[in-house]
Amino acid sequence: MSNFIYLIPTLLVLFGAIALLFMSMYEKISVKSHIFVSSLFLVIALVFALVNANTLYSIQPYDSFLNNVLTFDTFSNFFNILLILGTLLTILIGEHYLQHRSYFKGEFFSILLFALFGMMVLAQANELITAFIALEIASFSVYIMVGYNSDDSKRVEAIFKYLVLGAFIGAFFLLGLVLVFGTVASTNLADIYSYIQASNGSNLELLYVGLTLILFTFLFKIAAFPFQSWVLDIYRGAPMIITAYMASTFKIAIFSFFMRLILDYIAPIIDFWDTILQVVIILTLLFGTWLAITQDIVKRMLAASSIVHTGYLLLAFISLSYANNTILNIEAAYSIMFYLIAYLVSALGAFGLASHIISETNIKVTFDDFKGLAKQRPFLAAMMTIFMLSLAGIPGTIGFIGKVYVFTEALKAGYVALAIFAIFATIVSMYYYLRLIAVMYFYPPKEECISEDFNDSRVSTYAILFVAVLTVVGGIGSAVVFFIPALNIDTLINFAQLAVKSLFL
Amino acid sequence: MSADILSFIIFLPAIVAIGLMITTRDVNTIRNIAFLTTTVILALVLKLYLEFEPSSGMQFVTNVAWIETYGINYYIGLDGISLTILMMIAILIPTSYLLLWEGKTKGYWINMLLVQTGVTGTLLSLDVVLFYFFWEIMLLPVFLMIGQFGFGDKVFTTIKVTVYTMAGSLLMLVAILYLGVAYHSEFGVWSFAYDKLMQISILDYNTKVWLFLGFLVAFAIKIPLFPLHTWIMETYKNAPTGAVFLLSSIMAKLGVYAVLRFMIPLFPEVYIEFSTWFVIIGLFGLVYFGIAALMQDDIKRMFAYSSASHLSFIAAGIFSLNSYGINGALYLIIAHAIATGALFLLVGLMQEQTGFKTIKDLGGIAKKAPIFTFVFAVMLFANVGLPGTNGFVSELLIIFGVFNFNIYLGVIAALSVIIGASYMLWMFQRAILQDRPEGSPELNMRDLKIKEIVGLVPWVVLVFIMGFYPEVFIDKFEPTVTHYLQDILQIGATR
């Protein structure tokens, strides 16, 4: 029974998803009540997840029932908190958008919670088939959400591209899984680890091929270099709030499983991919930057810049450097975790705010449409500025601390040239982030975008404000300025450290 | 209280600015509140100035953990060098408020206040990451000011200047982090305090040169030194007067200060090795920007080049490796801040009144506005370095310094000062004194108001006091400089 508490958040989300499915059968229940019910489930799940946030544990409960395919530890709990928080904030920020688009019906929230369930299981999986199923639950839910309202031709394009490419890369994962199974005769990650340990470096060829194929899935889902081109069209075509969800929460879920895989289980042979990863990082940064500066549509620019952020995260990954049976630079793992928090907050804020702005109208799409926003809605423009500065890594925001963390670890691991290359990507990124701020503040509003009646005192706005406050507090900490020690930057770092430590219990 | 006085000085403007953001008062009230805030800060800085002990090192130090995991501290303090510049900032900003008429919106004054937090924070930080924090922060209000209140192609200008300077800063960030990593690998703990980083001994010479250059890029762009000056003309021309004043009088000086505070102590041997080159670059900049200024017709651009020329001279003084040069450079920092600050404000006033931007359109100001012309002339002569003004003392000291460093360069330095006199006086004759030609458009120009005169009187008085009794001021920072140079030369010699 004592183990049951660890399962509660995941089960609550699943239960919530099913409950919402039944709720959606009744046409009379409004979207607003769906929002309320789903938020309620998420808040309760979040509370249960937070209970265990500060304890170090790692268990595999009910082995007769679950067969050791799920690990519940501080690490998965850390990600569960982020994922639940991301979903909750997505719903709250999207409150306005979801109510203004007639095609969002009750079942949308059920699908959203199913997606979250998939991601949470993914964060806990320590077996490849479970991981695949969890990944597909999450992916299919996201496919459906991307394709909502298929009247729009852009949306049809988006869902087809995503579905076909996603299914294709899923086949890669399965093929890799088969090859791994052929070598190890098990799909449990712990067995793979002991096989690697026992083999002393021989008979690993098929395992290398299989794991490479599995890592392709990873690169695809996080939109790293050879697999980055889908991001723009799909982020552009999807409903805005779903873009926010994919860019922030879904990306983190992918990292959860692959961090577990790489840190804990295949670390001894990680050197094999070192050179490949270096090339991937350089090209990811290069292509992401190039795509981002050439976009005229804000949503596409944000999508392209998310590729650049993937590059920074991979830079932290490569800094782990393994030798003599230990990971030399485990701090790099903390830096990945911290950067994920920073990116979740800033990206969710930026995409979410964009979706909030276009709620009533459809026209805030290109940079030109954002002209004069600061005069019409100064509060929202200020929030957007905070998110842009955070994405650009300007001091005073959580994005700065994240960048400092990642670059420090890269330099410590000796990847000086890569770090300098990434700094150049950051320099260019200043341009496209500042451009949006400049457009909002320095131009008069366009005629057709002027509308009088905004109602900005609503849930969405407060949710955005909350995210903005998180962004700033995460960047300056509260101990120095406000003399509240509890909310300091170190607290976040400690959470990340605790989570990584629980992997090695 | 006395321990936290520096934090109070740093954050008071920001707190007031945030408070003003949510009020809906009219601009005049906001402007008065902002002015009051800066005078409170001036009073506090005067208190500091009197309490300061010239002979002892860092004072009023606050050192608390900020990000403990990485040993990044909120570490601030004050020594003779930073006190001098703090005093300069505290005097310049409130008086400039009296002359800035373009600030007709709330955002303008909020930005001015935020800049003050940024610059004082930069000045007082002793932790390198904290320094970087403020160094970047202080640029954002200027970005908004140029973009909103500038002229011409203001949006392009503001994005260009911001990305340009941030490019330098980010390269410096890599150097900062590299130093932190080196400290960590040598001592096993993290620290970014500048006095801790000075103890690093594991870096080889070539790495140090690269790190030195990483820091140099950031500072050379801000100052600006010769090849990295390409942003200033457009910026000074298109930016509102307030932003030009901040960039030229205050932020450029912080670039020089940062060289003294961080670059030279961290890499003394590299500094000694390269000093000849930098003195040459400095003197070349003095001549090059001087000649460029001579050829300008746009009056703000001319001042932009003039400012760059003086800052190159300051850099030459700093790199000349002796106490004459460094004391002179510090003195010129203040003298130039006063003179150029006043001149930019006066030119801004003149442009707003007359609507003319170029020298050849102006003329006949002296008849219409005698008091204006008098103040303008005083500042101009201080800028040129006429005996009796503060500019003379400082230029003389720097020339002594360069002579001590190398006799040939000293001769060049002494001779090239004449260029400054020539473009300044020529401009003065054409734009202010000379009568307007027949048939030219009517000139609208009023004389200074009482409020503006009150604002300018302290500057004029300072010009002469600093010119006749330099020891009053030099005594405050001279002991610090002497200690500082001893330490640097000793460390440089032992390695």
From TrEMBL, chain B:
<feature type="domain" description="NADH:quinone oxidoreductase/Mrp antiporter transmembrane">
    <location>
        <begin position="125"/>
        <end position="417"/>
    </location>
</feature>
<feature type="transmembrane region" description="Helical">
    <location>
        <begin position="302"/>
        <end position="322"/>
    </location>
</feature>
<feature type="transmembrane region" description="Helical">
    <location>
        <begin position="398"/>
        <end position="426"/>
    </location>
</feature>
<dbReference type="GO" id="GO:0048039">
    <property type="term" value="F:ubiquinone binding"/>
</dbReference>
<keyword id="KW-0560">Oxidoreductase</keyword>
<feature type="transmembrane region" description="Helical">
    <location>
        <begin position="453"/>
        <end position="470"/>
    </location>
</feature>
<feature type="transmembrane region" description="Helical">
    <location>
        <begin position="244"/>
        <end position="264"/>
    </location>
</feature>
<dbReference type="InterPro" id="IPR001750">
    <property type="entry name" value="ND/Mrp_TM"/>
</dbReference>
<feature type="transmembrane region" description="Helical">
    <location>
        <begin position="276"/>
        <end position="295"/>
    </location>
</feature>
<keyword id="KW-0472">Membrane</keyword>
<keyword id="KW-1133">Transmembrane helix</keyword>
<dbReference type="GO" id="GO:0016020">
    <property type="term" value="C:membrane"/>
</dbReference>
<feature type="transmembrane region" description="Helical">
    <location>
        <begin position="328"/>
        <end position="349"/>
    </location>
</feature>
<comment type="similarity">
    <text>Belongs to the complex I subunit 4 family.</text>
</comment>
<dbReference type="GO" id="GO:0008137">
    <property type="term" value="F:NADH dehydrogenase (ubiquinone) activity"/>
</dbReference>
<dbReference type="GO" id="GO:0015990">
    <property type="term" value="P:electron transport coupled proton transport"/>
</dbReference>
<dbReference type="InterPro" id="IPR010227">
    <property type="entry name" value="NADH_Q_OxRdtase_chainM/4"/>
</dbReference>
<feature type="transmembrane region" description="Helical">
    <location>
        <begin position="209"/>
        <end position="232"/>
    </location>
</feature>
<dbReference type="GO" id="GO:0012505">
    <property type="term" value="C:endomembrane system"/>
</dbReference>
<feature type="transmembrane region" description="Helical">
    <location>
        <begin position="163"/>
        <end position="183"/>
    </location>
</feature>
<feature type="transmembrane region" description="Helical">
    <location>
        <begin position="108"/>
        <end position="126"/>
    </location>
</feature>
<feature type="transmembrane region" description="Helical">
    <location>
        <begin position="80"/>
        <end position="101"/>
    </location>
</feature>
<dbReference type="InterPro" id="IPR003918">
    <property type="entry name" value="NADH_UbQ_OxRdtase"/>
</dbReference>
<keyword id="KW-0812">Transmembrane</keyword>
<dbReference type="GO" id="GO:0042773">
    <property type="term" value="P:ATP synthesis coupled electron transport"/>
</dbReference>
<dbReference type="GO" id="GO:0003954">
    <property type="term" value="F:NADH dehydrogenase activity"/>
</dbReference>
<feature type="transmembrane region" description="Helical">
    <location>
        <begin position="30"/>
        <end position="50"/>
    </location>
</feature>
<protein>
    <submittedName>
        <fullName>NADH-quinone oxidoreductase subunit M</fullName>
        <ecNumber>1.6.5.-</ecNumber>
    </submittedName>
</protein>
<dbReference type="Pfam" id="PF00361">
    <property type="entry name" value="Proton_antipo_M"/>
</dbReference>
<feature type="transmembrane region" description="Helical">
    <location>
        <begin position="369"/>
        <end position="386"/>
    </location>
</feature>
<feature type="transmembrane region" description="Helical">
    <location>
        <begin position="6"/>
        <end position="23"/>
    </location>
</feature>
